[in-house]
Inverse folding.
DNA sequence: TAATCGTGGTG
DNA sequence: TCACCAAGATT
């Protein structure tokens, strides 16, 4: 039976009512639900991408103190924005948001556009986020299909499409187009996601207390634990790294900015290399530094840091050492290096892996 | 289409 | 310890 056939004898109105009533009575009190400022909805939606509500809340509150309006964020320095995002991950979200907010300030007089084509053009705003902004902020009946929605609807209609495939989202968007409440699309979309977060969870869904259990095909068939179908991802690969905390004769610390593209773009770090083989030696590290124009004394290995990303694992041996002589300004510039006071290291946005190094060597240690 | 892009929580 | 997961977008 096709989804269309399932929908023909499926109680849309009853489903909407049961879902919306449950949402009204059970929705969480979240900071971004207390207002309907499109800018604030937008920021919350970007932060919530692949990130749990509990993780986002403190970041969201702090971000709104720093950048309460489109204008405030548009006028901020990118590095300040990255610092506010530090630890939240997926840093291209911060750079894209900042870029897009500048566009809104320039091209739309600071008002977030309420048309699908315009919103979707903004950097970092894809199909889900465009739908979320339109529906939640402007109460426009547009689908906002995220992982929650695909999981819930996979079960409601007993759909076995692989939700890790890009094309699957489109099928669910067309379903939402048919079943969305035209009276309250904002609450309907949020209710679908809230149900996925609180009741229709990935493992052990709480079908017994589900407000829409009588509308659910997977529940009727007893296959709720088998849905949704999702392809497995390959395990992350390990990379051996060596990093060094270097001090010059004035006691300043050497840090380095990462490239503009790729992983952790534009964040700062301690100078490091990827070691092809595991060698208990720092000759390769020393050679790398010399290549950047730096003569150093490496003292000892003081720490190990392990950090797991989605698709790779860094295993970092951490060394300490000292710069010999005066580094040439041009050499530092060329390698995106900077000498900063020990107390100023915290002013720069670091990935968590290098925050760990900072914590151990400079804060806990006596280096 | 499939890989890339972070981090923290959970069972 | 580890596999899996979370209000995805970009290339």
């Amino acid at each position: 039976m096709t989804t269309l056939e399932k929908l023909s004898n499926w109680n849309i109105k009853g489903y909407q009512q049961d879902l919306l009533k449950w949402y009204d009575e059970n929705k969480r009190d979240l900071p971004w639900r207390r207002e309907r400022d499109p800018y604030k909805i937008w920021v919350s939606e970007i932060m919530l991408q692949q990130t749990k509500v509990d993780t986002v809340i403190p970041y969201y509150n702090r971000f709104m103190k720093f950048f309460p309006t489109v204008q405030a964020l548009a006028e901020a320095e990118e590095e300040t924005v990255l610092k506010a995002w530090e630890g939240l991950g997926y840093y291209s979200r911060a750079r894209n948001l900042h870029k897009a907010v500048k566009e809104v300030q320039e091209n739309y007089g600071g008002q977030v556009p309420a048309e699908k084509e315009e919103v979707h053009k903004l950097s970092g705003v894809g199909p889900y986020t465009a739908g979320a902004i339109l529906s939640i902020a402007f109460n426009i009946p547009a689908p906002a299909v995220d992982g929650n929605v695909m999981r819930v609807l996979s079960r409601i209609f007993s759909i076995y499409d692989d939700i890790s495939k890009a094309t699957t989202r489109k099928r669910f968007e067309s379903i939402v187009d048919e079943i969305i409440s035209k009276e309250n699309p904002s609450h309907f979309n949020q209710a679908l996601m809230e149900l996925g977060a609180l009741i229709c969870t990935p493992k052990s869904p709480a079908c017994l207390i589900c407000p829409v259990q009588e509308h659910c095909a997977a529940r009727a068939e007893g296959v709720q634990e088998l849905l949704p179908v999702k392809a497995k991802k390959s395990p992350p690969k390990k990379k051996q790294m060596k990093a060094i905390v270097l001090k010059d004769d004035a006691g300043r610390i050497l840090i380095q900015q990462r490239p503009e593209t790729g992983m952790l773009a534009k964040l700062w770090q301690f100078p490091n290399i990827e070691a092809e083989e595991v060698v208990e030696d720092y000759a390769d590290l020393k050679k790398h530094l010399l290549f950047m124009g730096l003569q150093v004394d490496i003292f000892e290995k003081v720490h190990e840091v392990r950090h797991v990303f989605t698709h790779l694992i860094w295993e970092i041996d951490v060394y300490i050492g000292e710069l010999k002589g005066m580094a040439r300004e041009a050499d530092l510039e060329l390698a995106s290096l900077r000498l900063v006071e020990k107390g100023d290291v915290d002013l720069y946005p670091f990935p968590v892996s290098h925050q760990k190094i900072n914590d151990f060597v400079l804060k806990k240690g006596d280096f």
Summary: The first strand of chain A starts at residue 237 and ends at 247. The first helix of chain A runs from residue 3 to 8. Chain A has a mean pLDDT of 95. Residues 156 and 187 of chain A are 18 Å apart (CA to CA).
